Amino acid sequence: MFSRISDEINEVIQKAKEYESVGRYDEAAKSLSLYWKNTNERPDVSNLNKAEQAEILLRCGSLAGYIGSCRQKKDAQELAQNLISEANDLFFLSIDFEKRAECETCLALTYLRIGQLDEARCWINSAFKYDLDKKCEVRLYSHILDGMILFREGKYAELVNKCKVLEPSFRTSKFDVLKGDFNNNYAYGLMKLGKNDDAMKLFNLAKFFYKKTKHYLYLALLENNLAVFFQKQGYYAEAHNRAKSARENFKKLGDKTREGYSIDTQAQIYMAQGKYKQALACANEAIRILSDGENYCYLANSMQTKSHIEFHLKDYAASLETMIASVNIASLHVSKTQAKKFIDDYVELQKTGGFL
Length: 356
Known about the structure:
Blueprint: H1 7-21, H2 25-31, H3 50-71, H4 76-94, H5 97-113, H6 117-127, H7 137-153, H8 156-171, H9 176-192, H10 196-213, H11 216-232, H12 236-253, H13 256-273, H14 276-290, H15 296-312, H16 316-334, H17 336-352
Helix pairs in contact: 1-2, 1-3, 2-3, 3-4, 3-5, 4-5, 5-6, 5-7, 6-7, 7-8, 7-9, 8-9, 9-10, 9-11, 10-11, 11-12, 11-13, 12-13, 13-14, 13-15, 14-15, 15-16, 16-17
């Protein structure tokens, strides 16, 4: 039997979760400092009862993943996975299905960050096995993660179809950050399907909710998404402005991983313009930054961008070498499906260039 969580621990947990939900990860960690003095290590929960241990381990695990991703700490996601898994085992003893679903959704996110899409998919599918209220925060959060995984898997039509079904639940939700996430996911899927007017409306809704909650990190991510949106329509000046804004804000907020991601966006804008030397400089910088972290999906994508740029610069040997390196990273760390997609994209590039 689980003991009751003390009011003191409950207050700490709620404060940490509040900070975490709006991207204020350092403040969230500070609120847990009585138990978690070093965010690179396991918290000390030895003097807590089982229920309190589970709650502290879950919050510390979730935060370890966020902080580690932003600061590109090696093995940060492994630490997060260990802490969240330990919490999940404790919640199993209490038969708390909502907490187990939250743990498994958080585990899905840790695997998504390092590009391991198959593992992320397994954990999010497991989270959906629990019969929860469709409007509860954990269930809605699981849908957000599911959408993010679908996006990485390139299943844009499935993402949009799911968003259509889920829209009533999110529209009437009281969780504004999740509303922002939902609109952002939905908009990106629509953009990929060429439904630009509808996508822009939803991007604006996402911006409204992120501004309302002062989630500056996600506002920067939205700017990067808008850079891609304008680049695809040929509005290159606006695309560069958005990408530059995203990059500057990621840097100011200390998110090195997403800073590298936004530089890759800049490379793709230059490539679309035919400015291949500027594109190559950005791609190299993105790869340099992303090579220090654990997000192998971002890294493999940036290397694929570089391979395409080198092809357009007629440096065919370098292009092939970079493509092979990106495929190897995808095969080892992301998924065989993603690696095959890189190969297919390269073959299509050669056909376009008249080589096949």
